[in-house]
Structure formats: structure tokens, C-alpha cells
Amino acid sequence: MKKLISKYWTWALSLLLGVSVYLFWAYPYKSVLSYQEQYQLFLFGEDYFLERISLPGGLADYIAEFLTQFYYIPVFGAAILGVVFFCLQRLTWVVSRRCGADIQWFRLSFVPALILWMYMGDENVLLCFAISLLAALEFMLHYIIVCDHTKGYAAKALYILLCVPLVYWLFGANVLTFIGFVAFYELKREKSLSNLSLTSQFVLYTLLTILVSSYYLQYPLFRLYGGINYYRYPAYIPFLQITTMVLFAVFPILTSVLPKMKMRILEITEIAIIAVLGFYGVKASFNPQKYDLIEYDYLVRGEQWNKIIIKAKQKPADTPMSVSIVNLALSQREELADRLFEFYQNGAEGLFPSFTRDMVSPVPTSEIFYRLGMINDAERYAFEAQEAIPNYRKSGRLTKRIIDCEIINGNYGVARKHLKRLQKSMYYDTWAENRLVMLKDEKAINADPVYGKLRAFREKKQDFLFSDQEMDQMLGLLLTGNMENKMAYEYLISYELLQKDLDRFMEYYPLGQYISYNHIPKAIQEILIGNWMKTHSNPSSIPYSVDSSTLNTTLNFMSLYTKNPNSPDLNLVPYVNNAWHYMLISNSGMEKKEKEKMKDIY
Amino acid sequence: MTLLLLAACTPSVYDAQQKDTLPQIYPDYTDITVPCNIAPLNFMFTDENVDAVSLVLTCENDSYTLTKRGKKLVIPIKDWKEWTKRNKGKSTKVQTFARINDTWMKYQSFTWDIVSDEIDAYITYRLIEPGFEVWNALQIEERCIENFNSKILADNSMMEKRCMNCHIHGGDKGQFSFFYLRGKGGGTILNRGKDLRKVTLKNDQMNGSTVYGDFHPSGKFGVYSTNVIMPAFHSMDSKRLEVYDSNSDLCIADFENNRMILSPLTTDSTKFETFPTFSADGKKIYFCSSEISTPLPTKVENLHYSLCSIDFDEEKGEWGTQVDTLYNARVNGGSANFPKASPDGKYILFTLSDYGTFPIWHKEADLYLLNLQTGTMKNLTETNSNRSDTYHSWSGNSRWFAFASKREDGQYGRVYFAYLDKEGKSHKAFVLPQKDPEKDFLNLKSYNIPDLSATSMPYDAKMIEKINRERQAEIFN
User: Fold this and answer.
1) pLDDT, tens digit, 9 for 90 and up, residues A234-255
2) Which of B115, B143, B176 is the last residue before a domain boundary?
3) Whole-number pLDDT of residue B9
4) Whose CA, among A44, B168, B181, B336, lies 20 to 30 Å from B471?
């Protein structure tokens, strides 16, 4: 066994890295995989391939998008990342070893991969970067092989002559990582003037290759040198990307110059570096607030309403996006008017977050509009989110939602155009095929449980213009158009409550009698009790069907509040969850929603 | 041997069953009038089951046959050019065949009337996804109508994703042009045949940036509207986007003296004035105007624009003193938009929609022709569709016009061309031919504001990027 371990321990450690990466993304961070998948849409077909390959780094981009589509199923995505990191570390070590690194320093070969892992804590880092690093490592290895098996300068010069344009075009700016390694490798190998001159020419040749390409490509020079498809925001090259590139270029040479020594303290130091980087480094590089929102969106995508509520119970949602998702989850469980005030509320923003020009927050808001039956607004938000993807990619998830809206609205020509594209994808093709068949059968669309219901809900009689300041009026019109739209009623009532507009609440809440309730929702009961008690003294005269526990809690709240509005008891359960706590104590909802501002329009 | 192999690969039509319907093809190229200098009219069958197709063109004693595997009929450009050269001024009969489940179908034939009147060889348009208010990739592209060559004139991915719009030509050959680069550090890119200029068409007295505009025939002046544009979003399925002005006036730019010329008649605070254009001789300015008498956006359906005119004195660089109304929307209903005077001075082509000032999102928007000699106006029913038809521009010989139409699916604008014969009768429109006929079927971009030009523009996206980066915009007073 000991012999086995001593023979394969390096492989076992590499495998441990791969498995760690797999577990990391398969479990706590699987939502990130969904996030990555939903902001690209890989299509099979010649046109798509040619579109990608026509730019530097196109093959890496194509491979990365091909692989990223498997993130649709998180375990596949995590496995892919596990393999990528395993290969990166192994190749780093193989190259280091060929450069002369001692086995003693094997553990350090995890450092570049771990730095990359940390860098990938930025959700805008694309897999393309990792793929192109793999390619760069492969070409580094082949360069060493060429040097080891040939004499003189001719072979390696020929190798560089051919490989630099090839690596640049197929894998992009990581050709600089490759040539950086070559430069360090040559400087270490032979410090003669002639070799220095040759190495300088190699570097110059690489820089010129990129420069020449700029005359034929419509991209700013800094993007060609920094990589077109490595980062989602095209106008920005992160510092950590440059650091990672430099590290991969110099690491094999650095380890090769470290002395051969077998000291226990060194082993412990290596392990400590790996442990710190691996655990604290990676942990610190994944911003918990950002990933919280990503996870909320992931749960919406999977319609995991219970998990959303459990998540919010564990840690209160406090941003417009997360609060709106919690409220959406409550509404999908038909509990919004019951449990609204069990959760943190931030005014009407928590029902309909203000429109922002980004690719993230409009996605769940689109979901809210869609489920309400506000189909045009749902499509608008989905469309805008897709348009806001900074690197011009499409989204399978958002395209599906746009198609849903077009089908519901009867715009089959537009739906067909999008469906034809989705037919070329891996995970949306079956759905697209089914919808294409459906387009020929109006009855099938009407019979579809979702399309049929939303067609019944959507506005059909009275056109009005969207106004984010008059959501209650729009919800009212939606509800009066179809009194079976329970979600519209709950949102309408919640909107008035969150705006603290009790006059309008009293105007609208009676519409609940037309909705299929077996009880008056708790939040409504609390307001009705409190309102009644403002003008009456005897609770038994309350004309509403209220339950005793709600009655008692509300009466106790009123009593406590009357005695001392600053009583700390008011901030404890159950009073903190009472509608009157929000009305009288919370500062939320005081600011009227700022009107959506107009910016430049085409 | 090679010929034998090729012959074996090419399907041949036999025992075709006669169908009494026209073929289902994309784009719809049935019974159309086309200019003799147009690119090949490639098309495809839309039936998924078609696996081979054939086309037979006949004209008097001349004929041409093309048979292909698949669904697409892509005519070699050389063959097409020879055909149009031999048969211009005549009607070509187009007979199509399609093989479905090993059986050839012969469809009803249709015609292509190839007229000798040429269309301007170039057209520019903006490629944009028909969205709401967020834009992403924008490109202004110039396409040669005589073949399939194209070049990008401006690309916002090279310029901080800034908005770009309204590429408009001027001059008798389209040798002048301008378009906007919006946002901080942007300006109007002005091409008057010499150096490209970057200018700011605004002074302190103006209350907005210039938007719609046109060149004076001399190229010395441009007339513009200044619009504060607002979007609004409809709730019903049949409608989508409404765009209205919260403020709009007119101004003239004197390009040689870097000054803006205003008139109280066209900066009236009680009216919206927009869509200005010069007459063919440059002595008049046509524009659209509406009273500001309705709360916006809630009553946007009450916004009706009339078609008006005012004189312009080129020598003095002065506005006229009287506004005339050519189409009175208050009396006749609807809303007139986007007037364009024909280069021969006979007509004004404009769009009429139910209301408002953004016809591209009004499905009822149709093209109308006003005869300036007789004062008569007519709906170009032969050319219009049941979807939006607007954003038109004239060819230099006044026999052709291009426009954007959403007739395919109601959402994606495509470039259409229509013939206007000597009697003033318009013909069925046809879409800009593509090398791959499926291109526009899958294309998620709209072709925005197509504008014809006889000549190619002397710049490309790299030049524009350089100008944008290096030059400060010239100030106008």
C-alpha cells in the first residue's frame, strides 16, 4: 500500500483537486453553473462555428461554449470543471517537471490552478480563458519537446513561426502566456547573446502578429492583447486575469530553479500555502452577496418556491431582487397575502423592482410579470436582459421566455424565428420541436395549462401604457379582466399595503370575495382588525371573519404600541410579523417609487 | 468524367405533378417588378419536406434553367446579370418545381418584370435588434444592391457601445451623408465629400439634440428636428412599443459657417415639429407638426401630425415667414410622418398611421404619395402591407423607393423596394435579395431606416472609430 501511495500520490492529489472542484460546483455553487449557462446559447451548425472561429480565440470560445451548455445539468458542468482543473494542474506540473522541477515542489504546482479558481469567483470570467490556458500549456510542453529533441535554432524558430499565429487565432491572447513561458525558458536555458536575441525576436514576432491582426479586425488593440472572449465585459481586462496569465507563464521556470531539498518544514509550508489558497482564498473570492442573488435566480428558474422561502427564513432577503423573489415564491404557494409580513419588505420595490439595464435583475422580474399575465412586460424584461448581455451572446432561458410570450400573444412568425434557432441547441431542441408543432394547432396552445391560463389572464380589452408608478391600476385592470387571477389580487393588495396606502387597500380588498379563498388572508385580517378598532372599542363587534390568534396578536400589538411606540417587544415575534408593524414602525415604503427614467433611445 | 459525376449529383425534373397554387417560397418574390441592376433574386421553399428544387426562367425565346438539391434556389450572379441584361424591359416568366417525397411538383408560374429604370446601387441601414430601450450590438451597414457586397460603416462595439443612428444621404448621387454617435464625446459625423467632420449640431437656444434630418441639395445646409424622445410600452398583444416626443422643434445647420438657424415658426412651444426634409430644389422644407393639446403619454392616441411646409432662402440662409399645411390631420385624421420629397420634385412620399410619431411600431402605418402638381394623395395599396411600412427613401431617378417593412412577422423590419412607374402607380414591393435566402429568415436584427445612395461611402468603421476617438466635435453657434 505504501508503495502504491508513494508511486501514485501525485495523481491522487491531482484527482483530489478535480474532485474538490467538482464538489464545489456540484453542490454549494451549482447555481453559478446555471447562471453561466443562461447567458450563452451554443448552437450546432456551420454558421455558428464560422462566426466564432472568425475571431482570435475563436476555437477556445467555441469549445468553451460547447462545454458550458452542459452546465444546464449541474453535475455535468461540475464534472467538466473538475476535469479542466485536473488537466490544468497536471499539465502545469508536467511542464514544470520537463523544465527540471524537483518532485519536492509538486504541491506548488496546484498554485496556478488555485489562482484561476479564485479568479473564477468573478462570475464574468468565461470558461474560454481556462480552455485557452490549457492550450497554452500544451504548446509550452511541445516547445520543450522540440527543444529537447533538436539541435540549433531552426526547429524551435520554425515551431514558433508556425505556432504563434495558430495559437493566437485559435486560442487568443493566451499566446502571450505561451510566448512568455518560451522567453523565460530560453533565458534559463542559455544566456548567450544570440539566444537572447532570438528570444527577443520570438516575443516581438508574437506582439507583431497581434498588432497586424488589428488592421483586419474591428477590435481595439487592448482587447486583442487581453483576449476578446475571456471576460464577459469586453471593455475590461481584469488585473487577476493578467496575474493568472503571468503565473502560468513563469511558474514552471520558477519551480525549476528551486533547489532540490527534502525538508519536512518545506512540505508543511507547501501544504499550508495550498490549504490557505484552496480554502480561504477561494472562499474569499466568491462574493456571498452576489452569489446569494444568483442562487435566488437559480431557484426561480427551477420553480423551487419552498427552497426560496426556507432560504429567506435562514437569512432575510434584503435587496429589491431577492425580496421580489421571496414574494413571488409566496404568491406561487398562494401565501402572499397571508405571510407577506413574515419577511423583510422594502416597499413596492419588493414586488416590482425598478427596471435596470443589466442582464440579471430583469430576469426574475420578467418571471413575475409572466406569471401575473402581464405578457408584454414579461417579454420586455426578458428581451432587455438578453440585450444587456455584455458580450452580445444570446440566452436559451430568455429566448424560451420570449417565445412563450410571442406564442401567448399569437405572434407565431416571431416565435417560429426564435424556435428555428433553438432547434440547433442541445438542451432546448426538444422543447423547440414541441412548440413548433404546437404553432400549427391553436387548440393545443389554448389547451396548454400555462399558455391557456395566461391567455385568459392577459389584457385583451383595454390597451394601456405601462407605468411603474401606477402598478395598482394595472393590476386592477388585469384582475377585473379575469377574476380568477388570484396572483393579480394578491399583488394588488400587497402593493397597496407595501405602499402604506390604506385608502386604496380598503377600496380593493373586497375584490377578494371573488377569489377562491377559504379564509381572509392573515395580512388583510390584521389591517381590517386594526382599522376597525380605530373607531370601535369592542373587538367582538368586528364584522369580518377573523381567526382568534390573529385577533389577539393584533389587539396586543395595538395595545403595546399605544402604550409605547418604541417598545422593544414590538420588534419580537409575533408582533414584528404583524401588518401594523410594517405600517407604523418600519421605514420601508415611505419613499414613492422613482419613475423609470428615460435615457438615450435609438 | 467530372461532368458525368456532376450530372449524377444534380437532380432532374421528371413527371412533375401540376399544382394549382403558387409555390410557398421565402422571400415572396412572386409577381414583382424589379430593376435591371438588382442582385439575383435568390429564394427558398418553406416546406420542410422539399429536397430538390428547380427554376425555369423564360422570356420570349430565351430561357434559363437551374436545378439544385435542397430547398434553396441560389442563382449564380453571372448568369443573373446576363439574364437581366438580355431581358430588361420585358417580363420574365418564372416556373418553379420542388421535389417532395420523390415526387416533383410543378407550381403556378409567376412573373418578374425587369424594368430598365435602375435603382441606386447602395443602401445603408442600421442593424439593431427590435427591442425596447436597451440596445446592445449596433452596426450601420452599407450594402450594394447590385450584388451581395457589404461593408460596415460604423460599429458600436468599437466605440464604447454608444448608440448610433440615422445614416442619411444627400446630394444628387448621395455623396453627402451624416449620422449620429450618441453619448458623451459623441457628435454628428458629417460627410460632405471632403474630410469627415465630427460636429455638435446644437446651440444654447435649442432644447434638445438633433434627430431626424436631411441635406439641402447644395450640401451647405442641413435641416433637423430636435426631439426629446420618450418610450412607452403597450399592454395588449397587438401593440408593443410607443415612442413619442415630449418636445420637438426644427433647426437648420449651416455647415460652412458652423451656425444653427432657428425660426419662431418652427420652434413654437405650442406645437411639436418634426421629420423635416428639403424639397428637390431646396426652396422648401416639408415637415410634420402637431398641436400640443393632449396629456402624454396617457392620451398619445390623440396626437395627430399634419404635413406642412415652409420656404427656405438658400442665399440668405433664412427660414420663410409662413407655414402652409399640405395634409391636415385634424380634418382628415391619422398622423403624417416622415415626408420625403422625390428628386424630380413631383411627389412627397410619407407615412400615415393612426396617431403618434413612431410609425415603425404601428402596424397600420402605410405609405402615401402626395402629388405636388395636382395636390392629390393616394394610399400605395399595391405596395403596402397589413404591417408597418415606413422609413422610406427615394432612388435618384424617382422611379424607385426603398422602405422598411415589418410585413414578414410584425416585428423584424426588412428592406423593401417598390417601383413607381411614369403614371405614378406603385408596384408590389420585394425584399432586398440575400446571397443565402435563409439569412433574413433567421436573422434577429431589424434593418432600420434604409437609405438609398448612388455611390458608396468613402469611409468604414475603422475610420469612424478613429474619428470618434481622436476628434473633438466642432461647436456650432
Assistant:
1) 888 999 999 999 999 999 999 9
2) B115
3) 63
4) B168
Q: How far is CA A308 from the centre of its chain?
A: 16
Interacting residues of A519 by C-beta distance below 8 A, sequence separation 6+: A545, A547
Give me the residue label for grid cell 392577459: A458
Is residue B37 predicted with pLDDT exceeding 60? Answer: yes
Q: Which residues contact B229 (CB under 8 A, 6 or more apart)?
A: A598, A601, B211, B243, B244, B245, B246
Tell me the pairing of strands B430-431 and B446-453.
Answer: unpaired
Spatial distance between the Cα atoms of A39 and A399, rounded to a whole number of angstroms: 10
What residues make up the domain containing B76?
16-115
Comparing CA positions, the residue from A54, A80, A84 lying closest to residue A67 is A80
Q: How many CB pairs under 8 A join A and B?
A: 118
User: If you average pLDDT over every residue of chain A, what do you get?
Assistant: 92
Using pLDDT thresholds of 50, 70 and 90, give the confidence band for residue B3: very low
**Distance between first and last Cα of chain B:** 75
Classify domain A290-457 at the CATH class level. mainly alpha
Cβ proximity of B454 and B121 under 8 Å: yes
Cβ neighbours of B442 in A, within 8 Å:
417, 420-421
Longest dimension (CA), chain A: 104
Q: What is the DSSP string of A506-571?
A: HHHGGGGGGS--SS--HHHHHHHHHHHHHH-S-GGG--S---HHHHHHHHHHHHHHHH-TT-GGGG
| A592 pLDDT tier (thresholds 50, 70, 90) | low
Q: How far is CA B356 from the centre of its chain?
A: 20
For residue B37, the surrounding DSSP H or E stretch is none
Predicted pLDDT at A147: 94
The pLDDT value given to residue B35: 98
Based on the fold, state whether residues B387 and B293 are members of the same structural domain.
yes
**pLDDT tens-digit profile of B5-35?**
444 567 889 899 999 999 999 999 999 999 9
Three cell numbers at A19?
474532485
CB B136 to CB A474 under 8 A?
no
CA–CA separation, B116 and B38 (whole Å):
11
- Helix/strand number for chain A, H first, E second: 31, 0
**Do B81 and B144 belong to one domain?**
no
| pLDDT, greater one: A505 or B8 | A505
Q: What is the ipTM of this complex?
A: 0.91
Q: Do A600 and B132 touch (CB under 8 A)?
A: no
Q: Which three cell numbers stand for residue A336?
A: 402572499
Min Cα–Cα distance to chain A from B356, Å: 14
Domain boundary residue, one of B84, B115, B146: B115
The H or E element containing residue B375 is none
| Exposure of A125 in the CB half-sphere (CA atoms within 13 A) | 21
A463 contacts in chain B (CB < 8 Å)? 234-236, 238-239
B313-322 residues labelled b (16+ CB within 10 A) or e (exposed): eeeebebbee
Instruction: Say whether both B135 and B87 belong to one domain.
Output: no
Compute the average pLDDT of residues A484-510. 95
Q: Are residues B143 and B196 in the same domain?
A: yes
Q: Torsions phi, psi of B378, nearest 5? A: -145, 150
Q: What distance in Å separates residue A36's CA from the closest CA in chain B?
A: 19
The pLDDT of residue A601 is: 38
> Which of the four pLDDT bands, split at 50, 70 and 90, describes residue A600?
very low
Cβ neighbours, 10 Å, residue A296: 26
A340: DSSP letter: G
